[in-house]
Amino acid sequence: MKRMTDKERVQRAWRYEAGRASQARLRRQKPKRPSFAVLVIGGVMIGGALGWFGPDAVERFQGARREAMAPVGSDTLSAQFGFCHSGGGTNCVVDGDTFWFQGQRVRVMDIDAPETHEPRCAEEAALGARATRRLQDLMNQGPFSLESGDRDTDRYGRALRVVSRGGQSIGEMLVAEGLAREWDGARHPWC
Question: Does residue 109 sit in the same domain as residue 160?
Answer without folding.
Answer: yes
